[in-house]
Specification:
Udp-n-acetylmuramoylalanyl-d-glutamate--2,6- Diaminopimelate Ligase, Chain: A, domain 1, UDP-N-acetylmuramoyl-L-alanine:D-glutamate ligase, 11-stranded mixed sheet, 6-stranded mixed sheet, 34% helix
Length: 494
């Protein structure tokens, strides 16, 4: 691609360099820059990309998009000076990858909790319908059945466009994308054509970044002005109720979903067991029966979001209901681990007070024995959620095992001690075991008949953030290994 094509697409301050530059790709990582690449110097959480322009040029970058030219690289390359490299990256990537979002039907899902589950429910629906689909989100990117590891819930703009282009090449017809509030604030989905938006809920989180709940809400709200077809809004959530009313008053299309409040798509008469939840479903006056295989009210709400999106996209009601009945569940989201220990062991991503509350509410509906929860809290993130999570654990559980969960540069024992203050508020019993693998083994080894053990927070997250490095970590493998060891110890496995 000739550089003139890019220059015609951008508002820029100045360009210094050759007029016959050929562009092939785009990156914001100087280590990955190659001949023909555009290197975009963005401000990250810990580093300023302008410091790495020299490295990018040495590696072959043919064009640098930046706010200013550092003294050490003046006249050493081709430079495009812009007001916002992030905004420019989204535009350039869209052009380089030939506007892929216009060739794939895209549903964007935003909210504090439930994003991953909703995207995988949608993929399950379209798998049932026999259509190729992809996912971009917390658990990585899926291009049909190929999985690609990613670092963020919503990748940077250039990566999003690249993954969408891969989907186009693979004849994927639908993409289900988790859209984080960070992504909406940092231009990661600029120039992405989104057909349907889903709002799951909004509870206290990420205030280290947004500072206030109002800022957090306004960031999420941006998604619903980008959609081409419709928006699906959970009006049982107080912020969702507000959002729905604001969108309708502004003439923006929206379909409401809910259980407790009146809604266009409404579930009622929920019956929950360990094996799932059955309910009555009313779709704008049409009555149906439905079932989902993951138990709990929160699971039904996620299913309503997925149902609403598929319905808005024109799928038949009975087909969607049949698909939801066949979906086994989402890996690491209220996933029940098989065992012979006469107890229930659940793996879940709950890592906020609201997420933990919803999981515990569900467990309460079927628990027969003790309730044991194992969890921690992230270091250098919203400190105010630690004690509230402890309060929920202390209120609901017979034992809370407090452990490490991405401590970063904080002392994990100090983090656990702050959580413990909340547990103590309800006179709850707790034990601090910093090494998470040891904590999991302890929880399972000390299980009794009919216990329900919840391993919360890590789920499928593939690392422990220890500050200086992200250490590979696999909670599913660790838990399954502990189960087998203890089964052998108790003589119920050969």
């Amino acid at each position: 691609m000739d550089i003139k094509v890019l220059l015609n697409q951008l508002d820029y301050i100045n360009y210094t360099g050759k007029n016959d530059v050929n562009i092939k790709g785009i990156t914001y990582d100087s280590r990955k820059a190659e001949q023909g690449d555009v290197f975009v110097a963005i401000h990250g959480y810990t580093a300023n990309g302008h410091k790495f322009i020299c490295d990018a040029l040495k590696n072959g970058a043919s064009l640098v998009i930046c706010e200013y030219i550092p003294d050490n690289v003046i006249e050493q390359g081709n430079f495009l000076i812009v007001k916002s490299p992030r905004e420019s990256m989204a535009i350039v990537a869209d052009v380089i990858y030939n506007r892929p979002s216009e060739k794939v039907n895209i549903t964007g899902v935003t909210g504090t909790n439930g994003k991953t589950s909703t995207t995988y429910l949608l993929k399950g629906i379209y798998d049932f319908l026999g259509e190729k689909s992809g996912i971009i989100g917390t658990m990585g990117t899926l291009v049909d059945d190929e999985k690609i590891k990613t670092n963020n819930t919503t990748p940077e703009a250039s990566d999003v466009q690249f993954y969408l282009s891969r989907m186009v090449e693979s004849s994927v017809t639908h993409c289900f994308m988790e859209v984080s509030s960070h992504a909406l604030e940092l231009n990661r989905i600029d120039n992405v054509s989104i057909d349907v938006g889903i709002f799951t809920n909004l509870t206290r989180d990420h205030l280290d970044f947004h500072k206030t709940m109002e800022n957090y809400y306004q960031a999420k709200k941006k998604l619903f002005y980008k959609t081409n077809i419709n928006n699906i809004i959970n009006v049982d959530d107080s912020y969702g109720n507000r959002l729905y009313k604001e969108l309708i008053s502004e003439g923006v299309k929206a379909i409401s979903i809910g259980i407790d409040n009146p809604a266009d798509i409404k579930a009622s008469n929920l019956v929950t067991t360990m094996n799932g939840t059955s309910f009555d479903l009313n779709i704008q006056g049409i009555d149906k029966k439905a079932h989902v295989n993951t138990p709990g009210k929160f699971s039904v709400l996620n299913s309503l979001g997925a149902f609403g999106a598929a319905y808005a996209l024109g799928e038949k009601i009975d087909d969607i209901i049949n698909a939801l009945d066949k979906i086994k569940g989402v890996t690491g989201r209220f996933e029940i681990l098989e065992n012979k220990l006469d107890c229930i062991i659940i793996l879940d991503f709950a890592h906020t007070p609201d997420g933990l509350q919803k999981v515990m509410d569900t467990i309460n509906e079927f628990a027969e024995g003790r309730k044991i929860v194992l969890f921690g809290a992230g270091g250098e993130r919203d400190l105010s959620r630690r004690a509230p999570m402890g309060e929920i654990a202390g209120k609901y559980c017979d034992l809370s095992i407090l452990t490490s969960d991405n401590p970063r540069f904080e002392d994990p024992y100090d983090i656990c001690s702050e959580i413990a203050k909340g547990v103590e508020k309800y006179d709850g019993k707790f034990k601090i075991i910093i090494e998470r693998e040891e904590a999991i083994y302890y929880a399972i080894d000390n299980s009794q008949s009919k216990d329900v053990i919840l391993l919360a927070g890590k789920s499928t997250e593939p690392y422990q953030d220890m500050g200086v490095e992200k250490v590979p970590y696999d909670e599913t493998t660790i838990a399954k290994r502990a189960i087998k060891d203890i089964e052998r110890k108790r003589g119920v496995r050969n």
